[in-house]
Nuclear transport factor 2 family protein
Amino acid sequence: MKSVEKERNTMTFPAMPKAVHQFYAGSQAADADLWAGAFAENGLFHDPVGSEPIRGREAILARLRKVIPQFDPFLGITPVDAYTTGSQTAVHWRGAVVTTDGKPVNWSGISVFRLDEDGLIAELWAYFHHGVFTAQLGDSEH
């Protein structure tokens, strides 16, 4: 019989490089420092693709610290499938949050990660329909 502690440590994510796993673990923990810490110091975050990228770990951290408190709870982004070739990983994911006024917001997409020589995220492209996300916010101010 497994102990409760051992069950809590069971990996539920698909196998991914350490920094990619940290990205999703930070998201699900609503931990901006852990989440942004997966990026290289000069990492780029295209969120979503087509928008101006967020440049550098500190700017990414500032954005996450601004976004997370706008939701309660911030349930995070859950990887569904992951595919890695060399220094690149593509992940199909689902996201879920609840606005502070109680509206559930669900969205999904695919992210492509490029890792640097240290195994940190050098560049991340998040592909999702931003309009689907914002339409669910309704009149919520986010």
Remarks:
- Residues 14-137 form a domain with the Nuclear Transport Factor 2; Chain: A, fold (CATH 3.10.450.50).
- Confidence is low (pLDDT under 50) at residues 1-10.
- The longest helix spans residues 18-28.
